[in-house]
Design a protein that fits this description.
Distance between the termini: 43 Å
Radius of gyration: 16 Å
Shape: elongated
Oligomer: single chain
Strand content: under 5%
Order of helices and strands: HH
Number of domains: 1
Number of strands: 0
Length: 55
């Protein structure tokens, strides 16, 4: 393995992007009830992150 092959490219996906993707998948798969109140703090707790990426 050459020295250049030792490192792989770093992804450009931010934590915000990952939170968005997870929320999108959850909504599409019906993980939330219709009319359910979605609190930022509850979502952040579920995703084990701070509230900033959820906002």
């Amino acid at each position: 393995m050459s020295r250049q092959d030792a490192l792989s490219p770093v992804g450009r996906e931010t934590l915000h992007d990952r939170v968005y993707g997870e929320l999108r998948r959850s909504l599409i798969h019906g993980m939330f009830d219709a009319g359910e109140m979605l609190r930022i703090q509850d979502i952040a707790d579920r995703l084990q992150t701070s509230t900033m990426p959820v906002r």
